[in-house]
Design brief:
heterodimer; A: mainly alpha; three-stranded mixed β-sheet; B: about 450 residues; ABC_transp_permease (chain B); transmembrane (chain B); transmembrane transporter activity (chain B)
Chain lengths: ~425, ~450
């Protein structure tokens, strides 16, 4: 975070260490689950089926019993933290507590659903999670590439949008998905290049530039959409789509198979990129240099690293990644519409921050946000009393809490956003 | 600022131009450092010579004007490449270049002509209303942008980057609308309460990132971005609640604001311009006074220039950060409230505030984060918006082109070195530039 020591709240003081604070929150959540959700849940069985519909094998539990039981699990996890838990257990117990709370909530919701709909198709939910998380994964990875080398990337939204647009346009014109994919990468890279040139060469404030580029992308794609695609959708907005590739054997694994191994190219590419960027960032020379440039460019420069060149490279690569992420819409799911990214770029930014600027963290955060999104869809399908809008707020609220240091400190690369002036 | 003691935090001898250049992140310092000083020419230049020199120098006015020109050139190119008929004439440009040039000229000049007619004056218009209609439209779009622009500019001067004007405007419009149709109050008082409710909504939404910044150091850019979206979802939720949603409608639209809470029209019922523009001028004056004449303004600028030095000098940085964001939020909330209390709409819909918050960022930058500069920049953006409407209906050029123009103008403004290079401008004498604002997350 900003390294200004603005009245930094004294953390870890006295009895109320961070672990104990989190524990107290968990206890409260557990109580909420056990008492409120338990009371609201019905006697219906809450079924979690391992398929796409109500059929097939299922995990079943009585609604009231489940809500109370899992609420107590969260309560116990919180109590363990309050009692003074060794630090190495922290993440595990926190996970158990949160999952307990979530299951308690689900038991209530599923059991209170209209009769006949008291089931949650896990395959559907998980697949939806991945579909919704996919653009976030690409976007957040673009953020990782950019920001690890010290350039703030608020323009993720614009990169995704430009990628989606040029993928749709050139995919339609050429009739080839591959041309569309390359065009999408170039489209994203174009926005990135503008960011790089203005941020690195002309030293424009990077956040300002990101915001302006987002508006520029919205304007240019919207303008060309109305002029070309709306008047002649046949020739400009009917890109071919990647079909799903089924991986033999692996796709037969229950639950995980249909979710992870029956996707389109973008799913595999996204997961592969997480792995590649993780390894590249922490195991290769390029990664070391990138991180050095992001933390202390002067020192890196002293050692002969070409700071500006590396930043240009990383920012443009980020655009390529985000552009492909944008194509995961137009070359697989939908045809292009005006402003179709609709804020996903900013959730990706949130995922980047929530995932602490690391590729794997970004993946997990993106999946979490995708799950929240999917849960909102599911809950509105079963006429839940929980307004879907509040679930949609979850990613943003979680990020605010993370940034404010309430669930652990997040820290950006030290030189993130600072232009480097040699001399 | 006259009794400058040695420990004064106000290192920035706050000339407005500097603050602006600082905000925009500028390069010329490095440039001037590398280029050797020009030998001074002999003799004193004449006044006319000085004028011409300055006209083609990289000063604020020239750069702004040329940025506008550059943006319109890019806009023209976009129009041409997206028009299949005109583009077809380019296929035989070597054989008959006049066709391509004529077709392009007709297309572009008509579009920009309509932009002008819709924003400033239509020479063919007959009658009072028709003649004043473009100006009225321009001012209608200008008023809320002044507020959101001031919101961003005020925070900028205090060293905070308020990306959250959009969210603050949304919270403002929600509270203003609720006050507008839920409270049974007499005319006059009702309007006052609704306007203040709008300011309150924005202030609350500004307070959150303010206190988080002050207490935990959480970066306001991240938090304001996130709060923008929280506000969007809150708006879509509250519209469909019982008592808020229009009982006769199935779609997401709220009840209509009572006439007693609506801002009065200034030029009769035929024209849309309303009292919001007067409020905007008053707000500009108030912010100018606050920044340049008040103690708070001094503290605010000091904190913006150097928080550490300010703390040493006894200024409460925590308090100042919170106050800056509350004021900035209130301004954006006022801007938002005009979207239902004015003439653009009178009920909440999911897109009721349009883009005024994000446009406010551009307006603030274009106005070089000076209050009156912001007002002028808002006027330009309002004119583009009003003219864009006419361009859309008369020339069939999508309103999105206006977004492109606005973004491009600000991009060029933000990189004066680029404009300077393109037009071979002289370095402006007064342009002493500081390091960029960029502080990262």
């Amino acid at each position: 975070m900003a390294v200004e020591n603005v009245a930094v709240a004294p953390v870890d003081q006295g009895f109320w260490t961070r672990t104990r604070k989190v524990g107290a929150v968990l206890v409260a959540l557990g109580l909420l689950g056990a008492v409120l959700f338990g009371a609201l849940a019905t006697d219906q069985q809450a079924r979690f089926t391992l398929s796409e519909d109500s059929a097939g094998a299922a995990l079943e539990i009585n609604g009231t019993v489940g809500a109370i039981l899992f609420g107590l699990v969260a309560l116990a996890a919180g109590a363990a933290m309050l009692a003074g838990l060794p630090k190495r257990w922290f993440t595990l117990v926190l996970g158990v507590g949160l999952v307990g709370f979530l299951l308690s909530f689900l038991c209530w919701q599923v059991s209170a659903a209209p009769t006949g709909q008291n089931f949650m198709p896990l395959v559907n939910v998980l697949r939806g999670t991945f579909v919704l998380a996919l653009p976030l994964i690409f976007g957040a990875l673009a953020g990782v590439l950019c920001e690890r080398s010290g350039v703030v990337n608020v323009a993720i939204e614009g990169q995704l949008l430009m990628g989606a647009f040029s993928g749709a346009l050139f995919g339609s014109i050429s009739g080839s998905v591959w041309v569309g994919l390359v065009a999408a990468a170039i489209g994203g890279a174009f926005i990135s290049l503008l960011l790089a040139v203005f941020a690195i060469r002309y030293l424009v404030d990077q956040v300002v530039m990101g915001i302006v580029l987002n508006l520029l992308a919205v304007g240019v794609t919207g303008f060309l959409y109305e002029r070309l695609m709306q008047t002649d959708a046949e020739s400009y907005n009917s890109a071919p789509r990647f079909s799903n590739w089924e991986i033999p054997l692996l796709s037969d694994i229950p639950l995980l198979g249909p979710v992870l191994f029956r996707g389109n190219i973008f799913l595999y590419l996204g997961l592969l990129l997480v792995l590649v960027i993780h390894i590249a960032l922490f195991r290769t020379r390029w990664g070391l240099r990138t991180r050095a440039v992001g933390e202390h460019p002067t020192a890196a420069d002293t050692l002969g690293v070409k700071v500006l060149r590396l930043r240009y490279l990383n920012v443009v690569l980020a655009g390529v990644v985000a552009g492909i992420g944008g194509a995961s819409y137009t070359l697989a799911l939908y045809s292009f519409t005006k402003n179709m990214i609709g804020g996903k770029g900013f959730i990706a930014l949130a995922a980047l921050i929530f995932g602490r600027w690391s590729p794997t963290g970004a993946l997990l955060a993106a999946l979490f946000f995708g799950f929240a999104d999917q849960l909102a869809t599911y809950l509105s399908a079963i006429n839940s009393t929980i307004p879907s809008q509040f679930l949609a707020m979850l990613p943003y609220l979680a990020t605010i809490l993370a940034v404010a240091g309430l669930v652990g400190r997040v820290r950006a690369p030290a030189a993130d956003g600072k232009p480097y002036i040699k001399g | 600022m006259s009794s400058v003691n040695p420990g004064s935090p106000d290192k920035e001898p706050a000339t407005e131009a500097q603050a602006a250049q600082t905000a925009l992140g500028n390069t010329e310092q490095t440039e001037s450092a590398t280029t050797p000083k020009q030998p001074t020419p002999e003799g004193r230049p004449t006044l006319g010579r000085l004028f011409l020199d300055n006209l083609w120098a990289a000063n604020t006015f020239t750069v702004t004007l040329l940025s506008l020109v550059l943006a319109m050139v890019v806009g023209a190119i976009l129009m041409i490449v997206s028009d299949p008929e005109v583009l077809a004439t380019y296929s035989y440009i070597t054989a008959r270049p006049t066709d391509a040039l004529n077709a392009s000229w007709t297309l572009v000049s008509e579009a920009y002509g309509n932009l002008f007619k819709g924003a400033v004056l239509d020479p063919d218009a007959v009658g009072f209303n028709a003649a004043l209609s473009p100006i009225s439209e321009t001012l209608t779009y200008t008023a809320p942008l002044v507020f959101t622009g001031l919101s961003v500019a005020l925070a900028f001067r205090g060293g905070l980057f308020n990306i959250g004007a959009q969210g603050q405007a949304i919270m403002g419009v929600i509270l203003a609308a609720l006050a507008g149709f839920l409270l049974p109050l007499p005319p006059g008082l009702h309007l006052l309460v609704a306007v203040l409710a709008g300011a309150l909504g924005g202030a609350i939404w500004g307070f959150i990132p303010g206190i988080l910044k002050a207490r935990t150091g959480a970066h306001e850019v991240i938090n304001t971005i996130m709060l923008n979206y929280v506000a969007v979802y809150f708006l879509t939720w509250i519209i469909v609640q019982n008592g808020v949603q229009d009982p006769n409608r199935a779609d997401a639209i709220s009840k209509t604001v009572d006439t007693s809470a609506q801002l009065p029209r200034l030029l009769g019922d035929g024209l849309r311009v309303h009292a919001g523009i007067i409020l905007a001028v008053l707000a500009t004056a108030a912010v100018a006074w606050l920044l340049n004449r008040s103690t708070l303004g001094f503290e605010l600028r000091a904190v913006g220039a150097n928080p550490d030095a300010s703390r040493t000098a006894g200024i409460s940085v925590t308090k100042t950060y919170i106050l800056i964001m509350v004021f900035a939020g209130a301004l954006a909330g006022l801007g938002g409230s005009q979207m239902v209390l004015g003439t653009t709409a009178s009920a909440l819909t999911p897109l009721v505030v349009a883009q005024i918050g994000f446009d406010g960022i551009l307006v603030a930058l274009l106005g070089r984060v000076k209050p009156w500069g912001v007002a002028l920049a808002a006027l330009l953006f309002g004119a583009l918006q009003a003219g864009g409407n006419r361009m859309q209906s008369y020339s069939g050029i999508s309103l999105e082109l206006v977004t492109v123009l606005q973004a491009l103008i600000v991009i060029f403004i933000a990189a004066p070195a680029l404009v300077k290079a393109i037009f071979q401008l002289r370095a402006a004498r007064a342009a002493r530039l500081q390091t960029s604002l960029a502080k990262g997350w």
